[in-house]
Write a structure and sequence with these properties.
Elements (H helix, E strand, L loop, with lengths): L23 H17 L5 H12 L22 E4 L8 E4 L1 H8 L5 H15 L3 H9 L5 E3 L7 E3 L10 H17 L5 H28 L4 H19 L5 H15 L5 E2 H14 L5 H18 L7 E4 L6 H18 L6 E5 L5 H12 L6 E4 H11 L4 H4 L2 E4 L3 E4 L3 E2 L2 E6 H8 L27 H33 L3 H5 L4 H4 L3 H5 L2 E9 L1 H17 L5 H9 L6 H9 L8 H24 L4 E6 L4 H7 L29 H8 L7 E4 L2 E4 L1 H6 L1 H13 L4 E6 L4 H7 L8 E3 L4 E3 L5 H9 L2 E2 L1
Parallel strand pairs: 3-4, 5-6, 6-7, 7-8, 11-13, 12-13, 13-14, 14-15, 16-17, 16-20
Antiparallel strand pairs: 1-2, 4-12, 8-17, 9-10, 18-19
Helix pairs in contact: 1-2, 1-4, 2-7, 3-4, 5-17, 6-7, 7-8, 8-9, 9-10, 10-12, 11-12, 12-13, 16-17, 17-24, 21-24
Length: about 750
């Protein structure tokens, strides 16, 4: 039996999943075949075991071509299989236990249900994430993602893989095989070659599926399918030559690799697009059709917080081709209004005005995309934070909820998460978490609240406890890599990451050039606001003792309403108050520098905080007691780098001024959300554009905008059937508002709407 409970959700799931095309009986047979291959491979090299398992699901899991598809490649996902990330299954050899248990209800016979039980029992001891959990989790300090009773959560996953697709397209499938044949023949290299040969089988299966679709097609649809069929045959044996061929090969490979973020596609695909248009092979409208189909394919994967496609920025060789690609993507983005892909625009001082104008119009239309990143700040920041040269830093990529990686060169998965606010509350309560009374301070001795005689004493003790959690964090992050590397090679990922093939080593076995990581931090601003309230009300003004404030919080402010009002009325971050913002920045730099230094000391290329929320700010808020910023127990915490809902009272300029004060060179990504009405975006367009420009010039690194009318979100809560396509920014991602739970909706409603 498993010592740690490995049931339950392991990622944010907002979008409604598309059901498997296979019958329950077919799904069961596939999962049994995968499991048997895993059992049979117990004594094999991990790479050999992996490829044998992959052969049981590829090309079997690929599903039929749908009526509007202009690219081949749709894939089912089962509760047991192989993957890189939890968003579409799990990490390595995985079992999603609660989904396997739910799948059991789809079966009718007791014999079939018994077979599921046998699978469940086997994977309790062999699911890679479960193996990791047995080693790392405990009853006090460290919980699994997502178990919000703990101040610290840890997981094993390989999020944010941004592969070097140029290597794939420049060499073609056979070219990759030739490169690998020249390397020393090891189990890893042989299995990598077999992976690419398996890719050929996948492409051949796509040809069969396209052929099936052609039986009921005519006219333009027949022509589209014929092109798909011909191009699949072409890329199976030769390097892609056209935009459609390049798009098709990239997409099929991404599916086999299990990646859910795609990177700088303007660099990868732009040159093919421009050449086709220059040669009269296609026009922009035809390219628009292809990209619109890609958008739909990504949307249908339903990974919620992922699907990044990035355009713009420094480090592009053929800027004209890249801008052409970006222009067409902006058209698609505005017209489709999907939750995914998370379309992202990197801005520089040289970004063409027409691109900026199209981006602004897209956002103003309510699409929520593109997300805007400021290369003038981010490139030098990444150069420092990740300890890389300028050329490498120019290839930074945001993914998920804002974390950065270097495309094709780094792992940067966020496998650790810290609740800064819960840890602060433990410092007020002798190491106990007020939500459950359990001491969670480890070896750090925490005095009674009455013993703190100065603000610096309290703040220093808080930092001491934070540092204990920093140590837990880096150990957990490093161990996730150790466990994953013991179990799998991530063959498809390794092949397109620099320089696994050149080194002859798997991704986490010394193959990847830069082994990095990120730590998600939550409650940053609630914590700094609480620190500022303590400083002002207790130690500067001496209006209350710290014990009085803590007592009020322990009673959830019931009977202590005046204290809560006084706490709430202390200046808050987000209003351009210099003293308050300086304290927020001091806390930020302590956390960011402390995490980063521990990564360096443990031999990582980088280990950085990402100031994130991905709705975990709400989930963790439910399990976090009342805090001394005036927030009640169970209420959502502030989203990422943004003020707590209702705290920003001085307008958008003041809010953005506060947001721009954190020095980006210490973090690995942060999220800035803001809401405007359509009236403001259209009638005050010049002012809003000037606001954005000023924010970026003052050091703002990123911005995400929701455009919605007053009262629309409230009405959507009451009448969800009227708003099936109302998209909002949640965190580093967007979602259909009515698909969100009521508590997440309430947190979004709490954010200031500027008009």
């Amino acid at each position: 039996m498993a010592r740690i409970n490995i049931e339950g959700s392991q990622n944010v799931e907002v979008s409604v999943r598309i059901p498997s095309e296979k019958t329950p009986q077919e799904q069961l047979t596939i999962m049994e075949a995968y499991t048997q291959a895993h059992k049979d491979g117990a004594k094999l090299d991990k790479a050999q075991r992996e490829i044998n398992c992959l052969k049981t699901i590829f090309p079997t899991l690929f599903r039929s071509v749908e009526d509007d598809d202009l690219l081949a490649g749709r894939l089912d996902f089962l509760p047991i299989g192989f993957g890189s990330v939890t968003s579409i299954g799990g990490v390595g050899h995985y079992c999603v236990f609660h989904k396997l248990r739910a799948f059991k209800d789809e079966l009718s016979s007791d014999e079939e249900k018994k077979r599921v039980d046998e699978l469940y029992h086997y994977w309790e001891d062999h699911d890679v994430k479960a193996i990791y959990c047995q080693d790392v989790l405990n009853d006090t300090t460290t919980g699994r993602f997502i178990d919000c009773h703990y101040p610290f959560m840890a997981t094993a996953r390989l999020s944010g893989m941004m592969l070097n697709y140029r290597k794939l397209l420049d060499n073609g499938i056979n070219g990759l095989i030739d490169i690998m044949h020249k390397q020393k023949r090891t189990a890893f290299m042989q299995s990598s070659i077999e992976s690419i040969q398996l890719l050929k089988e996948v492409i051949e299966r796509q040809k069969e599926l396209v052929k099936d679709a052609m039986n009921n097609a005519d006219g333009q649809r027949q022509k589209d399918l014929q092109l798909m069929y011909d191009d699949l045959g072409f890329i199976k044996e030769r390097k892609p030559e056209t935009f459609h061929q390049a798009l098709q090969l990239f997409w099929i490979y991404a599916l086999c690799a299990g990646v859910i973020n795609y990177g700088r596609m303007d660099i990868v695909l732009g040159p093919y697009l421009k050449r086709d248009i220059d040669n009269g092979l296609i026009d922009e409208d035809e390219a628009y059709r292809y990209l619109k189909s890609l958008w739909l394919m990504i949307e249908n994967r339903r990974t919620t917080v992922n699907g990044r496609i990035i355009v713009g920025g420094y480090g592009r060789e053929d800027e004209e081709a890249c801008d052409l690609f970006a222009k067409i993507c902006l058209r698609v983005c505005k017209d489709t209004r999907y939750v995914e892909p998370q379309f992202t625009l990197r801005l520089t001082k040289d970004t063409p005005e027409y691109i900026k104008e199209m981006a602004y119009d897209c956002i103003a239309s309510g699409a929520t995309y593109p997300t805007l990143y400021n290369d003038e700040v981010n490139v030098p920041a990444v150069e420092y934070a990740m300890r890389v040269d300028r050329k490498t830093a120019e290839q930074y990529i945001p993914f998920g909820c804002g974390e950065y990686v270097i495309q094709g060169k780094s792992v940067g998965t966020p496998n650790t998460l810290l609740n800064l606010l819960k840890i602060q509350q433990m410092v007020l309560n002798e190491g106990r978490d007020p939500m459950d009374g359990i001491v969670k301070s480890g070896p750090v001795t925490i005095p009674k609240v009455s013993e703190y005689k100065t603000f610096d004493e309290f703040y220093t003790k808080y930092k001491e406890l934070l540092e204990y959690y920093y140590d837990l964090s880096v150990k957990a992050q490093m161990h996730s890599y150790t466990v994953m590397n013991e179990q799998v090679s991530f063959l498809f990922n390794s092949i397109l990451m620099d320089d696994c093939i050149g080194r002859g080593k798997a991704l986490l076995d010394g193959g990847v050039e830069i082994l990095g990581g990120t730590n998600e931090t939550y409650g940053n601003i609630n914590t700094s606001d609480a620190l500022y309230a303590i400083k002002k009300l207790v130690f500067d003004e001496k209006k209350y003792t710290l014990e009085e404030l803590n007592t009020a919080a322990l009673h959830n402010f019931e009977g202590y309403e005046k204290i809560q009002r006084d706490l709430w009325n202390v200046p808050k971050y987000g209003n351009d108050d210099s003293e308050c913002d300086e304290l927020a920045n001091d806390l930020y730099e302590h956390v960011a520098k402390g995490i980063r230094q521990r990564g360096i000391e443990n031999g990582m290329g980088y280990y950085l905080i990402v100031i994130s929320n991905n709705q975990t700010n709400t989930d963790w808020g439910h399990e976090t007691a009342a805090s001394l910023d005036g927030r009640r127990a169970g209420v959502y915490m502030n989203p990422a780098n943004n003020p707590q809902g209702g705290a920003a009272k001085n307008g958008p300029t003041a809010t953005l001024n506060s947001l721009s004060k954190f020095n980006a060179k210490y973090h690995g990504g942060s999220v800035q959300n803001i809401k405007f009405t359509p009236r403001m975006m259209h009638d005050d367009k010049v002012k809003v554009q000037a606001l954005f420009d000023t924010y970026f010039k003052r050091g703002g690194c990123q911005l995400m905008v929701t455009v919605v009318d007053h009262g629309i979100l409230e009405d959507a809560q009451k009448h969800p059937e009227k708003y099936p396509d109302l998209i909002v920014r949640v965190a580093g991602y967007s979602a259909v508002f009515v698909n969100l739970t009521k508590d997440i909706q309430e947190e979004l409603l709490s954010r200031e709407l500027y008009d």
